[in-house]
Design brief:
Layout (H helix, E strand, L loop, with lengths): L3 E7 L2 E8 L23 H8 L5 E9 L2 E11 L10 H4 L14 H13 L10 E4 L9 E2 L5 H21 L4 E7 L4 H10 L3 E12 L5 H6 L3 H16 L2 E7 L6 H13 L6 H15 L3 E8 L2 E11 L2 E9 L7 H15 L4 E5 L3 H6 L3 E11 L4 H22 L7 H4 L12
Parallel strand pairs: 5-7, 12-13
Antiparallel strand pairs: 1-2, 2-3, 3-4, 4-5, 4-6, 7-14, 8-13, 8-14, 9-10, 10-11, 11-12
Length: 427
Amino acid sequence: MTTTTTTATAHHGSFTARLLPPGHHSAHHDGTGRDGPDLVWDDARWLRFTARTDLHDTHCLEVLEEDRPVALATLLVTHGPGGLLFYDAPRLAGTASPMAEPDLLDEAEREQWDRLTASLPEGRTDHYPSLALATFGNHHGVAHAPGRSPEQRQSVMAALPALLQQVSTQLGCRSTALLYVGEPEAEAVDAAATRAGYHATLLGADAVHQLNADGWEQYVAGLSSRRRRGLRKEVTAYEQSGFHTVATTGPAALDDTVIALQVAHRAKYGLPGGDERVRRDFEALREENGEACVVLGAVHEDRMLGFALYLRAGDSLFLRTVGFAPEAAGCYLALTYHETTRWALENGIRRIHYGLGTYEAKFQRGCALHPRWGWFGFHGPDTATFRDVLDLQSLSIERRLERVGSPATPLPSRLFPPSSTVHGAAR
């Protein structure tokens, strides 16, 4: 494939974007241009891992300002239904999942949700190929060049909706999405994306546990009495059930036991799995990011019955996946939160990124919730239906975060949506 060039003018200046061939990335993207402290999801090694999936075609979009590379974004092309749900825009819109909770809608809204989603064609084939700007890990994955100021980074993010739409058209895609953007960029992206015809949706929140203690005992002592009682109850139950935690780091952490538990986990939740696929995914992870791997295992009588796989970047951990045998079902909270925190404090970690979903559990155990937004562009005969579905979808997640106690500040386009058939919803 030859590179494709497209130009758009953003609010803060003129940018050019080049679509690089699959498997190629800009020479400036060597892991030093991260946007934020110690972020895994925009690292070049993670980009190479993402490119090895067979569920999407992965491209890199190089953004230039006056012929100087200033950012690199991961693009995922899905040719038909069956890609990973969280990056498959036609399926992500209107599928009940961690990013759509129709049970939180009132009766009239739920009836509307059911009617609208039932009216969308099965398979939604008219909206493929589909292009998403995002990377695995539920992050937008935009890596900025070193030394760029916050204002310069925001200007790039604001240029992306128009650039992405042009690339999408040139690739013959029938739907487009820019996913998992948080503050401080979200408001700038929202204004630009709304002008370009996208529709905003709250997808969820990234849960981040900030660790300010110097050790486990100091951490426990600093908790509220309610949280301290909960921690001791869950850790005591874990230990009295005969479990202890074993940490393994580096490529050797991804062994056959972890693979078997992951196969079972994917089967349980209906994710693309099977032994062959999991082995292929873990082999790619081992080769590209093996040194960053940390596996915390819940061990009972010398058998690992549960695990949590993290990727380490500097003083941060990023949860990648978990897996538990039926006998270890009760170990999840103790291992994933308390035992992870204990290991983190003993090994110089200051932040643990848990990703989206299960917000109550995360918030109750000390995580801050950082909203993540997406913008969708559908251009077929079902455009109006998709927009109404996305309004309801966003409303359900807004309510989820409100109930947890960490409401998301609405974007301007969600305060005054250009079109909606949502009735009785508090805006």
